[in-house]
Amino acid sequence: MRFDTIPTRPIDGQKPGTSGLRKTTQVFKQPGFLENFIQSIWDGIDGAAGKTFVVGGDGRHFNAEAIQTVVRMAAASSAARVIIGQNGLLSTPAASNLIRKRGADGGIILSASHNPGGPDGDFGVKYNIANGGPAPEAVSTAIYAATQVISEYKIAPTNDIDLSQIGETSLGQTAVEVIDPIADYAALMADLFDFTAIRDMFTTGFTLRFDAMHAVTGPYAKAILEDQLGAQPGSVVNGTPSEDFGKGHPDPNPIWAKALVDVMMGEDAPDFGAASDGDGDRNMIMGRGIYVTPSDSLAALAANATCVPAYAGGLSGVARSMPTSAAVDRVASALGIQSHETPTGWKFFGNLMDADHVTLCGEESAGTGSNHIREKDGLWAVLFWLNILAHRKSSVAKIMQDHWETYGRNYYSRHDYEGVEVEAANGLMAMLRAQLPKLAGQTFGGLVVTKSDEFSYDDPVDGSHTSGQGIRIFFEGGARCVFRLSGTGTVGATLRVYLERLDTEVLGLDAQEALSSVIQAANEVAEIMTRTGRSAPDVIS
Ligand code: VG1
Ligand code: CO
């Protein structure tokens, strides 16, 4: 096939260790920018020739154009096949499933996840490997190395392919297949969960509100929850993917999904509420009058896993990211199964699942998943909860109350300070790092520090070592705060402060109230107000 070889230059894009590149849409739309990064991916994985890739995105502005570019570049580099979701749509979990099911060599997911979209929003490219999971450190380092030496990219100057038509065409040696983005994923969900029990629950009048936040899960949720399981039509709201997510911020937390929170806390609340993020890998879970923190949700899923057909035989183990609360550890120890603590980011769970050390894993940022794929999965978490509710014939509030009575309650909250000056944020972290050796024994907010460290991780499967993953400060009585800088923002720095306190007696407090001394301790030890110039966090989740 004829292709053009276009000179380009190194662009300092993806940082080593991150599983994708996230920039403003404007940056991505610069001539040659996306091409430069896609070529770097091909170069970082020893070329695209003869390989099969799954390609799709969350429908944000520039999604369709970017897919055309990826296809032209796959063809110019003699890929064997590209499998694309119809209209360019694939949720991250659906892409992970397709990579595995079709035996693809990898996948390119076009999304900046929970970051806002549109011409003035953000865009992103993630590369996933053959197990369906985010590129591990070794692969992202190779891609980064390629971005540093790139001098040209290859692209086939062909017409656009029709993304709206399911079917197969070819571009030179490359088969281009447009598929139904929902069917395989829906079939997988039907395999895992007791759809009959959930359907029966809806028949008896159970009500649900699923807020797709104008992002990619809308069509999936309508097909599965409304069409297959019988939730009332209209249960899925904001269900049509839009280029700029209805000018919203598709991050399923109590701030950005406030409309859902208001309904769930109101008089006519349905039995169950949930929301999902831009690319469909995260979830927010609510019951009538209750918000379930993601850390608690993970623990509840682990504790109730045998209600679900796919996990009826029990779990091999569980994993959580370090900043996630220890609630799931308490369940693991009661069940006598292993529990792992990994750095933030889903890529660390892949090895543990491939080696069958863990079945379930999750993060405090509302990502929960299992070994059914190698990504976190928003709609899966919703179906898991529905399956538990159908099986236990109980409410979300009752299930959480029982859970806390059995395991104690890990009060938990995350405070985010967004768009902080990079220097101020780095200075705060450096100051804490310098203090680490002398914190033990000191008192902050009335709490005595027992130990502190900077988290690092040795992968038990491949032996790799990852350091600098967040500063942890532990206090007497089992409280903890953690400080880390976000790796997914595109403007300034985001300081994340993770706050936790275990209580086995008093279970019904408001989280911020229960955590007030830990919040004060965190503010004092990190001098948050003076160093960031902020008097309060931008987002509390
Ligand atoms: C955030 C979350 C992290 C998550 C990551 C990617 O990262 O805190 O838990 O894995 O987003 O999620 P950070 O570095 O901003 O804290 V997604 O939905 O963008 O795949
Ligand atoms: Co996401």
Give structural notes.
The protein is an alpha/beta fold and 541 residues long. 33% of the residues lie in helices and 26% in strands. It has 18 helices and 27 strands. The strands form 6 sheets. The protein has a 7-stranded mixed sheet, sandwiched between helices. A 7-stranded antiparallel sheet has the order 20-21-24-25-26-19-27. Strand 22 and strand 23 form a beta hairpin. The radius of gyration is 23 Å and the shape is globular. The mean pLDDT is 95. Alpha-D-glucose-1-phosphate-6-vanadate binds at residues 113-114, 277, 281-282, 321, 344-346, 363, 365, 367, 486-488, 496.
List the defining traits of the structure above.
binds alpha-D-glucose-1-phosphate-6-vanadate, seven-stranded mixed β-sheet, 18 helices, 33% helix, binds cobalt (II) ion, alpha/beta, seven-stranded antiparallel β-sheet, 541 residues
